[in-house]
Amino acid sequence: MLSATTWVPRGFASEFPEKYELNDEEMDRINHLAKLNLDEAKQDLEEAQEDDADEADEELVEDSEVPANNGNVLKDQLAVDDDLKEFDLEHYDDPEDEANAQDAMFMGLSDEVKFYEGEEGEDPYIALPKAKDDVEEKQELQVYPTDNMVLATRTEDDVSYLDVYVYDDGAGFHDLDIPTEEGDEQDPDVARGLVRDSSLYVHHDLMLPAFPLCVEWLNYKPGSNDDQAIANFAAVGTFDPSIEIWNLDCVDKAFPDMILGEPADNSFAMPTKSKKKKGKGKHVTTHHTDAILSLAHNKQFRAVLASTSADHTVKLWDLNTATAARSLINIHSNTNVSGSQWHPSNGSVLLTAGYDSRAALSDVRIENDNDMSKYWKVASGEEIECVRFADENVFLCGTDNGNVYSFDIRNGAESKPVWTLKAHDAGVSSVEINRHIPNMLLTSAMGEKPVKLWKCPLEAQPGKGPSMVLSRDFGVGNVLTSSFAPDVEISGNMVVGGVSPGLKLWDVFTNRSVRKSFHTELKSLQQMAREEARQVGKSSRISRKYTKNDNPETVLTVEDQSDEEDEDDEEEE
């Protein structure tokens, strides 16, 4: 099951990700992160030792009731059987010499034990990695500047992961009629006269503590206090009330780099009976107390992360200090806050949506919580599941009834929707607008299998709403997540995930109906991509794509990862 997806733009991932090392410094960081409650641990240990001591006393009393002459009878029987003498069973229960026992268990600690020597006199059982192996491993993990990452949260058999995919759009063209451009030779395969097809594969994964509900990419390094630094991190929200932040440029990592909303009394420690649950009516300002429903990273003020929760609050996190700078509880009338996104150009305005049938635009600079928000309302009784900006003035809301609403903030607060679309018969799971083609809308529903692509009117016209271009079932079951690629060179690509295993990637422009419906938009997009590529001395691949109507549709599939993990476990055994 894939529950959430997002993309990492080109150029942010490290070309050679580092391997995770559990050194002393990392152990100190983990201990500080976990805030281990040693007093409780010692108390539990003492109680366990007392229980073991009581059980040992009971066994001793039972053993004392056995006749004392049983030992002599046993020795007499053993003396009769000469065949058993070589096993020295008479002294089987005698305490062993500690030194000999240690040597028998850990043979490498004894000076009397000789190893069989391997090549160059080395122990054959301890082989250090060769330089060739290091180079091969480094090449396998290499992420090129032209690659994108796709982040997807996966749950299999009650175990959850953050899968980090790498997508390569390919290079060159099989069609010899497509002209070459200056800059093509920068790709090593094209320089050798080769053509590389697009590919999608899992680069590495990270284990999560609970079922994930949302994932957000961060281009800021937590705790760095450096506004100029570029980084590659991911924030993950789960059914747990804390938020984990992971470094995507480090593989085999066992612990997150930062945890937001970790209670001071340590959620890692087992709760004791004396601890009382917090009252539901109390506003906790330091951390969430229920599931994290959405995350939004501020691209203007990159040290700020917004989160919304089933505890009815919106929290603004300072990524430098890992603390909640502000907690808002009055925005959505004590209901679940299901979605959030920062304004594309105004970093102080936050868009949120909740189960109170309202979407809110809040200026977080205003201190008074009651005066900071303006509202737009959907039909009474509908709960908003997701919300997205279409542009700086228009935002979209998807509800649990399958409706999609479009609001124009220029019409003022409490204004009616510009249009309403009955997109699905089940609750909407995603509403996505293509960043480079503003009138291309993608919707999906958590109770339906097809993904629907719509063409929206660019200007508000009375009675005119989106028209459906196509509806397609990708075989992922009920769709839980979908998202468009962020870069202009792959702006037609989208990923889809659902309750069935496997991630799907589809290039929408390889479909003839889509190219026909967005013919004008595609031409403008290709021209823009060509100009941007020329400015940096590169060639544009998308500007030469889709030249013929007989091109096959491009759908890439990454199969279920749990099968591969089972095979790896069998090989290790």
Briefly note the structural class of the backbone. Answer: alpha+beta
Secondary structure: helix percent: 10-25%
Largest sheet: 4 strands, antiparallel
C-alpha Rg (nearest Å): 31 Å
CATH architecture: 7 Propeller
Question: For the terminal residues, how far apart are their CA atoms?
Answer: 27 Å
**Count of helical stretches:** 9
Question: How many distinct beta strands?
Answer: 30
Number of domains: 1
> Kindly state the mean pLDDT as a whole number?
84
In CATH terms, the superfamily is: YVTN repeat-like/Quinoprotein amine dehydrogenase
Low-confidence stretches are: 265-279
What would the principal axes of the Cα set say about the shape? globular
Which range does the strand content fall in? Answer: 25-35%
Lateral arrangement of strands in the main beta sheet: 1-3-4-5
Detailed description of the structure:
There is one protein chain. With about 575 residues, this protein is α+β, with helices and mostly antiparallel strands. It has a single domain (about 1-20, about 145-270, about 285-570), classed as YVTN repeat-like/Quinoprotein amine dehydrogenase (Methylamine Dehydrogenase, Chain H). The chain has nine helices and 30 strands. The strands form eight sheets. It has a four-stranded antiparallel sheet with strand order 1-3-4-5, with no helix packed on it. It has a four-stranded antiparallel sheet with strand order 6-7-8-10, with no helix packed on it. Strands 11-12-13-14 form a four-stranded antiparallel sheet, with no helix packed on it. Mean pLDDT is about 85; it is low at about 265-280.
